[in-house]
Amino acid sequence: MTSKIEEFARNLAEAESTRVGIVPLTSIDSELTLKEAYYVQLENIKKKVEQGQKIVGKKIGLTSLAMQNLLGVDEPDYGHLLDSMVVENGGLISTDKVLQPKVEAEIAFILKKELRGPNLTALDVLQATEYIVPALEIVDSRVKDWKIKLADTVADNASSGFYVLGGKPVKVEDANLELIGMAFYKNGELVNTGVGAAALGNPANCVAWLANKLSEFDIPLRAGEVILSGALSAAVEARAGDTFTARFAHIGQVSVHF
Amino acid sequence: MSQYKEIANYLVSAEEERREVPKVTVSLKPDLTVEEAYLVQQEIVNRKLSEGRRIVGPKMGLTSFAKMKQMGIEEPIYGYVFDYMLIENGGKVRLSDVIHPKVEAEVAFVMGEDLEGPGITGAQVLAKTEYVLPALEIIDSRYENFQFTLPDVIADNASTSRVVFGTSLKKPEQFELDLVGATLSINGEIKELGAGAAVLGHPAHSVAMLANMLARKGDKVRKGDVILTGGITAAVKLNFGDIVTGKFDGFGEVSFTVTD
């Protein structure tokens, strides 16, 4: 089993460095469990940390009912954020650093206290949050043509790519997270809108889910970490030359170029 | 009797008798144009006015870019809300009063001054707006299976049926209206959601477009009009027993119950 996890981790790491998508792991091993998939993810994160990268936060994926229905699952998933994934607000992402990127608009939580599950609620999350800011997440799949099942994306660090934080830091008590509206533009044209409730009813619910889920692996959310809480609208494909901007009520805007 | 009046009677009878009818473009006038459809709508408005009904304000429909693309149209449509269509916040929508209702969450504008197109923009709209308030609009096509062409829906007063206005009025400058988040829940479960920008990029653009469209027939947006700007959310079908709640950032809630 360990050799299988190491092999799958190597496949994904190679796909990432060569920018050549691989066949889904679940097509090689239809029995791949969620737990094993998380160990594949953790294996690659461990290697990157050994090579000097730093874990700066976590992201939650599959937080909308639409996405969960698409993959036939009834819970979100998560991945690790590394310092190498950070892009400045208004910054540039070279398309030769990604395979098949898509962009999503989200609310990011910056924690001031450790959150260690299980049995945490949104209220614990709000109390442990220093501030929230708007974020763009660039998701990318190392699996060819995004042909992913749940275990495939989990093994692939929840299809993480890059992320951008923008806007202005706002205390959680100064905005109603559930009703923060968001308008998402590609090259100046509105592509969709969303609202905080799109992420499991409230973005803080997503962070609570994550803290509880991570307790299964004895991993806490740490003070200072950035938590991307989940997309407020559908992901939009990105190509060279594209500019994406998300404007949020109360917390400002964030943009990125390709 | 003019053919427009005949079509108007056909649609008003369907509304009053709460039964769905074949599309006008199938049953009475296959070549009905958009311009003629607005003449039919005007006949409906005239008839209701002559029966003592009062206009609350115009309303905009088909205001989402997605819906416009889907119907292959370049501009939205308008219709009129009448006094008998109003339901109190927290009140009841009776299924026996309607045919096959759907609900959507919207922002409404109360005009402080007249707005006369053409050439009106969103900024002018905001400057002349007295209040903005949240609303739930119940649309109810008089056509079979809620299906229609563009001229059909215009003739049918843009599917207007019932409106529940919220009771919290705000000054427009208190908000970035395009970023107001809204959720539409039925029996506690969120069914649809969105932000104000879903309405033509900004709800004020919808009122500007209305003023410019009304100018074509020598009409204008009037002081005191309460204008529904179009759905922030997609429309959701209503069923007996539904408790419908719209939550709007900074505006509170609007709700109603569906009874028989």
UniProtKB/TrEMBL annotation, chain A:
Chain ranges of the Fumarylacetoacetase-like C-terminal domain: 84-255
InterPro entries: Fumarylacetoacetase-like_C, Fumarylacetoacetase_C_sf, Hydratase-Decarb/MhpD_sf
EC number: 4.2.1.80
EC top class named in words: lyase
Record GO cellular component, one term: cytoplasm
GO molecular function, one term: 2-oxopent-4-enoate hydratase activity
Keywords linked to the UniProt accession: Lyase
Xref: PANTHER family: 2-KETO-4-PENTENOATE HYDRATASE, ACID HYDRATASE
The protein, known as: 2-keto-4-pentenoate hydratase
Lineage: Bacteria, Bacillati, Bacillota, Bacilli, Bacillales
TrEMBL record, chain B:
Domain Fumarylacetoacetase-like C-terminal: residue ranges: 85-258
Keyword Lyase: yes
Matching Gene3D superfamilies: Fumarylacetoacetase-like, C-terminal domain
EC number per UniProt: 4.1.1.77
Pfam families in the record: FAA_hydrolase (PF01557)
Keywords: Lyase
Protein name (Swiss-Prot/TrEMBL): 2-oxo-3-hexenedioate decarboxylase
Organism: Neobacillus niacini
First-level EC class: lyase
Cellular component, GO annotation: cytoplasm
GO molecular function: 2-oxopent-4-enoate hydratase activity; 4-oxalocrotonate decarboxylase activity
